[in-house]
Protein: TetR/AcrR family transcriptional regulator
Organism: Nocardia suismassiliense
Amino acid sequence: MAYRRTPAVQARLDAQAGLIVQAATKVLAEAGYAGMSMAAVAAEAGVATGTVYKNFAGKADLVTAVFRKVVAGEVAAVVAASATGTAVERVSAAVETFAGRALKNPKLAYVLLVEPVDTVVDTERLHFRRAFAEAFESAVAVGVSRGELPAQDARTSAAALVGAIGEVLVGPLAAAPHGESVVPELITFALRALGVRAAPSGSLARQELGVSDADA
């Protein structure tokens, strides 16, 4: 008869795997993909290196698990931020949340967006980008349906925005400190690209961020 884990044993194993993923996330945020090792993760988690390998086949497998957990949270944040409002408000909120959160944890975001990784992790990165594109796609589609944005293919526009934003963030993420104008400029670019007439001197982006012209 094959051995079956009891619920208690499975819960303990799941908790251990979760602890390792959390430790790996911290190591990635500090050292990046190239600087991460299974031994470093084990030390951070307070377990033996062999225990890490019992839960994950190798570095790529572990980082894939990190991607799935972190991306799920990031996508949920973007979706929640852009769930209501006009097209301008939805798109602005999506850009601000996506880029703003990335800039708050630049090393980890650099790993998620552009750092050279193993093929299996790069495949997960494509899912990550697609998930964000779907959040933008929803905001664009609503805007088009309401006549707030000119007619366009929402999926194509969303994919283009995510790609452009990721490309812009490569510089700020790779070489801190980043300029404070990055997020407002990205919002202005996104709205312009979607066909929204920008307000003079970039004031539209500042309004979306709750900053008055007098404070700029």
